[in-house]
Amino acid sequence: MLRLDYHPAGRHFLQIPGPSPVPDCILRAMSYPTIDHRGPEFAELGLKVIDGIKQIFKTQHPVVIYPASGTGAWEAALVNTLSPGDTVLMYETGHFATLWKKMAENLGLNPEFIGLPGIEGWRRGVQADQIEARLRQDSGHTIKAVCVVHNETSTGVTSDIASVRKAMDAAGHPALLLVDTISGLASADYRHDEWGVDVTVSGSQKGLMLPPGISFNALSPKALEASKTARLPRAFWGWDEIVEMNKTGYWPYTPSTNLLYGLSEALDMILGEGLDNVFIRHNRLAEACRIAVRAWGLEIQCADPAVYSPVLTGVMTPEGIDADQLRKTIYERFDMSLGTGLGKMKGRMYRIGHLGDCNDLTLMATLTGCEMGMQIAGMKLAGSGVSAAMDYLVSQRVPFNR
Amino acid sequence: MLRLDYHPAGRHFLQIPGPSPVPDCILRAMSYPTIDHRGPEFAELGLKVIDGIKQIFKTQHPVVIYPASGTGAWEAALVNTLSPGDTVLMYETGHFATLWKKMAENLGLNPEFIGLPGIEGWRRGVQADQIEARLRQDSGHTIKAVCVVHNETSTGVTSDIASVRKAMDAAGHPALLLVDTISGLASADYRHDEWGVDVTVSGSQKGLMLPPGISFNALSPKALEASKTARLPRAFWGWDEIVEMNKTGYWPYTPSTNLLYGLSEALDMILGEGLDNVFIRHNRLAEACRIAVRAWGLEIQCADPAVYSPVLTGVMTPEGIDADQLRKTIYERFDMSLGTGLGKMKGRMYRIGHLGDCNDLTLMATLTGCEMGMQIAGMKLAGSGVSAAMDYLVSQRVPFNR
Amino acid sequence: MLRLDYHPAGRHFLQIPGPSPVPDCILRAMSYPTIDHRGPEFAELGLKVIDGIKQIFKTQHPVVIYPASGTGAWEAALVNTLSPGDTVLMYETGHFATLWKKMAENLGLNPEFIGLPGIEGWRRGVQADQIEARLRQDSGHTIKAVCVVHNETSTGVTSDIASVRKAMDAAGHPALLLVDTISGLASADYRHDEWGVDVTVSGSQKGLMLPPGISFNALSPKALEASKTARLPRAFWGWDEIVEMNKTGYWPYTPSTNLLYGLSEALDMILGEGLDNVFIRHNRLAEACRIAVRAWGLEIQCADPAVYSPVLTGVMTPEGIDADQLRKTIYERFDMSLGTGLGKMKGRMYRIGHLGDCNDLTLMATLTGCEMGMQIAGMKLAGSGVSAAMDYLVSQRVPFNR
Amino acid sequence: MLRLDYHPAGRHFLQIPGPSPVPDCILRAMSYPTIDHRGPEFAELGLKVIDGIKQIFKTQHPVVIYPASGTGAWEAALVNTLSPGDTVLMYETGHFATLWKKMAENLGLNPEFIGLPGIEGWRRGVQADQIEARLRQDSGHTIKAVCVVHNETSTGVTSDIASVRKAMDAAGHPALLLVDTISGLASADYRHDEWGVDVTVSGSQKGLMLPPGISFNALSPKALEASKTARLPRAFWGWDEIVEMNKTGYWPYTPSTNLLYGLSEALDMILGEGLDNVFIRHNRLAEACRIAVRAWGLEIQCADPAVYSPVLTGVMTPEGIDADQLRKTIYERFDMSLGTGLGKMKGRMYRIGHLGDCNDLTLMATLTGCEMGMQIAGMKLAGSGVSAAMDYLVSQRVPFNR
């Protein structure tokens, strides 16, 4: 019989860039008894999470919570705002940007995919000037939306969304701005309203520290307006009924009650720590991780320090080292999961997640596992990344967040 | 601060027709740590639940498990098999059949909605002869699918799916047969393959005893074939990639890991008890409930004993009694949730759920709550439904299922 | 392999007079991670539960919390206050009073056991005049303590502790008053200080709704004074070090951390509902139960209405009916546990627990299980206890305790 | 309001020598609903844990499980085997040996406390020749028991119990051998029968990975025989009734049901991994820890490599460094708890726990926390203990225990 509950001695280290480790208190919250989603108690829960999630997105406008995992929220952003055959400008930042583009094609849209050549495009974020240039050419406003990934989970590179907004404004182009921050939300600074984003897409299993299963669309008034005329067929994903019923704390169809319990707990944790403190912590851990990678003499996948991800770090392995074989070694020897190289980066990198419910010692455990694993795999390291990271953390003088 | 975890003394009785009470062991299973859905452990889980759920649907063919609640699975059934403007024959059995029809419209289909007149249609299941007659007229095969609800959650009436299949065969019509058994699965006898169903839609929060959040499409080879030419846009709901990757126990995008833990536990419980025993138990409890309703001198919403639902019983309230006010009284006095009258039945009935993790004494508690609540509400009852139900249960001589 | 987590469909009804059903939120609280009982967080927990439990005992004086089950707290009360060979006056109210007396003998004390003759003593509480008379005879003050059980778990009879205090005062006797309210605390009114009790003994698994495993000694200044000269050997049970360290929220040795988490939650629940409301609820449920027993035409074990227990009701079975066989039938048919007849009452009664996390519908479920079980066992009942209990509850007009 | 469930971002590292971190699956097992400890299900649980725990102690004879924490099991060992005024030979190995001696005095025994002078006695285990010499002098057999601590939690020094047995045999002395392995059981090799121990005392919150709250006495036939004539008063701790009732899987009084659920799970984990594998893992982690301490240039409290503890390592801090201030720094900066120096070692050492549910990366996290904390505290370290420990672990080539 399958023993799901079996685990070997000691904790598994789940250091992939999501799902991130779910804190015990969230798992406990998820085990509250399921209640009637039409009953009086539910409205309290509904109103609380709807209000709280807006604070995380930094928006005054509606945020739709879907009882579906993140890929669904990608689809929702497209089908609510666009019509069959619409041209959308999408920017290639990595594997997930590529998958989103493929989804747009499947839905009958006409994505135009721009970016930097080769893997160079996977090592730097969005180049807003390319977007601006393309939009200036589009005097007929054929392009209906610009789609950008804020935090590329496949590379550890973020994109400067404010610069994209500026580029669109500079070009005087009316396209909608759709942003995926599935893996960035609640780990990396994000400002839906201030940055003028029309639809922000996110998920539960990253910075929100929940299991996968619910996802989000944060809206702008312009996006809501666009949804009135958009002609892609939609029902489950339709914003209007949800936004309307959410005013009373309910959903038009059955929401994912127990994941909403978890979300309520996650909001208490994050807003209790303070979003700014959460970002500071992520930045400190990410910096410690990059210091380790440099000390090892390895290359960080992200080639532009201005857009390092606070969520994960992509580590490029030298010629002759199969990164997936290395990950397997580390898994088997140290019970730690690391992220694989995806798409163009298959076998050439591994990804270290340092997001969500992570602290200094968990990161150090992770780095020791990587360092030992690389030694076992016979890699020659320039020096001890662990020592370098410890030096950095010692210098920081930050108490843990009580 | 919202205290989600607060509950007054004693257990809440959640006797709505879903979400049904989630057993402790399923809640515990859902609190296992979230694992990497690309790691080696996950495949074991994936293969187990994919195999197990087939046994519940009684099918040899693929069952797609969506990380989305039941309404999504309705949409999936339509968008995978149909093209814009397609005519679908839908049968009005109640509120949920009506909502499914509305969804078909929203997705750009052309539903033809047939049924019995007035509320009569909500008190009897599908009339297969009406379907046969309509299909015989459709010599050009404009109708691409027949859509039927197996267990109408809004009424407590089931439909004879085998008779629909026979009607379609008798008419020699090639339309697909799409069936919603969201609230019937694992409570009422259901046979996907034997009954020749092409797509069966179901959800987690009813007979499977899970919280809401995952849902199902059981497929036939004919449905899979149809999906190759169906032209409604789709991505998230697309069967092909999921069916392909499921062969190794994985999903193309992030599944709802912790609900799959719960599903694994639910399958152990249900297959451990034995599906036939589960059905016998549901039938016994439903019969006890109906005996009580009759003893009270009230009318059962389902007017045809051949299609009584084993999942829930709709109780019609006499003129002058607002069923929702009665439900409120019972909730406030006895901490019990009952189902409301939906759509055409608003205020004229209440629904008693007796599905899932229910046993004799829980049902008796429920009936005492109803009987006392009706007395408090000033209703004159013909007799004690509680006494009548006890007499029936005493006569049954069935040990509980150890 | 033993599957502890296995349960058949539906909830087990644990209607014994303790352990009482543990609410989910207490089980969840018990699953918080174990912390360092010498660390800074622990003191907060320690101080909270020490303060809260005093409110339950209604005392201003120290309450010692032992990491041991209730029998240990009996021993603690004796060894902290008495010396080898000391005479103690104990009153026979039932099986547990008898066990306590046996324990006193084992510890080298000289218990004098008084009471009413035959099973009559098991059907009425303490007769304070007997105690007064005996103490008046003891002019030499040989008797060092009077030991009384406040709520006899074996019978469903309480004892009037205030009357015992008055009797002792009237006799002008300096003996200590030791009271066992293991099964009464937090279900039946209890006033340690007001009633002049010197040591009150209690446990966790009854009105406090916790699993078994911790227990209590509430002290008076006189008891603390007596402990300085008492010569029975003691170490683990010794009050002095615990009382001293408790001032800072710690214990001299390892406390039962996770049960203290549960206690913290239980205190929030009980003090949140309000002790008086808890007592009112227990009295209402107990009265409903007794009304049912009378309607069945059966005898309540407690023969004096002034001392009916709000915790449990002892139901005497007629000649020719083996109460344990009946309990077995009910267990096997309805998955409900009832209490057995103990000692002198073996086979002649069963006990219905209606304490702790119980509400109207749970009690009604219990009564239907009893009534159906007795019918299956072939007992002729005078009438329906279930109907009578419903009539009573309907008349009460009390909302459940939100 | 006290928020017990609050925890800052990331896991707390509980690296004290007990309570050790409780695995999630044990916490989950402890949340199974409390059952009737007199009902049929309970016997299965009782028999399972009674049988399993014998395998852990490596004994064929009874093991008594008390619903009380470890200090109680110390008392039980003494009161079941000894009579007032009996002389017992106790050996000073550290703080806990000293506390046990104090308990013996409190219980009216006459302990004779031998050992090495000064703190030298706290840095080496039992010197069996001293015991042999003392027993040889005792030709009148005044000494009724020899009491030794197997794993001194206060120092990280074990004692060679087999050598004590040999010494007693060599002296031809009939005293009982009582051994405390509260913190050693299931982490360090232990053989109750083979080593001829008469009573072994242990607890739950160390190698068994449970919360505190239950404890153990493993018995020999000779100990059982001695209990028949031992005259210290006892009731709660009395072996005879427990041993007798345990034959059917029950206890004479209420056991700690939910901790027994946890014990059942712990036994599955430990016996599933294999006791020998558990010991190998503990030894590997302990060796890695000692290598780190030496690399730092610090002294290990245990001065005899033959008796290093696999459970914890005592680290002596240099002159001028207050070890408790250092522990506070580490707690506040890195959310890690370390053990304090006790008794004679107050402020002069800290203790690193590496027992129970621990693995390579958790140990490495711990060592990085220590190393960084010592740097922050301004200590000059000879080198990096972290690097040295990594080198050792890399060389071990042991997969984690799936």
Automatic annotation (TrEMBL), chains A, B, C, D:
Q: Which GO terms describe its biological process?
A: glycine biosynthetic process, by transamination of glyoxylate
User: Taxonomically, which superkingdom?
Assistant: Bacteria
The protein's required cofactor(s) are namely: pyridoxal 5'-phosphate
What does the UniProt keyword field contain?
A: Pyridoxal phosphate, Pyruvate
* PTM-bearing positions, type N6-(pyridoxal phosphate)lysine: K206
Aminotransferase class V domain span: 39-293
* Residues that coordinate or bind substrate: R351
Recorded GO terms, molecular function?
alanine-glyoxylate transaminase activity; L-serine-pyruvate transaminase activity
Q: Which family does it belong to?
A: Belongs to the class-V pyridoxal-phosphate-dependent aminotransferase family.
Q: Quote the protein name from its UniProt record.
A: Alanine-glyoxylate transaminase / serine-glyoxylate transaminase / serine-pyruvate transaminase
